[in-house]
Amino acid sequence: TTTSSSFTAHLSASSSTLAYDREFLRTAPGLLMVTEIVLGLLVWTLIAGTEYFLYPAFGWVMFVAVFYWVLTIFFLIIYMTMTYTRIPQVPWTMVGLCFNGSAFVLYLIAAIVDASSVTKDLDSHNYNSWAASSFFAFVVTSCYAGNTYFSFISWRSRTLQ
């Protein structure tokens, strides 16, 4: 006969209950999150490939882009693995609304700062990268605005119940 430790039994039981939501990527919020990740990566890599550290405005854009890129990946993993169902103490609709709302506001500020800082006089060598990052920053801002709307609808439907 073989025996297994209670730790091994608990580990195998808990890992098998981890769910995977394949349908989340087919929803509008899921598609927007993937778009935010891909285009947010473009925003900060286009700036990171330049000498942005010489200009403080681009440092702010880098901070916002990298910070929300990492957090968006984190939230995508939470939604894809349905971890939110295992932690019911957290008000996930409120967390999602605050996250997307703050991402929208700070990305909007960063996109405006990015666009207003791009001039040919500043450094013509990096002009195209900074201009492209500015464009993609506004696209990512609109994605976060869309996700803020969906988060608000979700939050509103939970508070009315």
TrEMBL record:
Residues 24-156 form the MARVEL domain. The keyword Zinc-finger does not apply. Its main location: membrane. It comes from the Eukaryota. One of its GO terms (biological process) is myelination. GO terms for cellular component: membrane. One of its GO terms (molecular function) is structural constituent of myelin sheath. InterPro entries: MAL, Marvel, MARVEL-CKLF_proteins. The keyword Repressor does not apply. It is a multi-pass membrane protein. The chain crosses the membrane at residues 30-47, 53-78, 90-110, 130-152. It is found in: Membrane. Keywords: Membrane, Transmembrane, Transmembrane helix. PANTHER family: CKLF-LIKE MARVEL TRANSMEMBRANE DOMAIN-CONTAINING PROTEIN 8 (PTHR22776:SF10), MARVEL-CONTAINING POTENTIAL LIPID RAFT-ASSOCIATED PROTEIN (PTHR22776). This is CKLF8 protein. It comes from Sterrhoptilus dennistouni. The gene is Cmtm8.
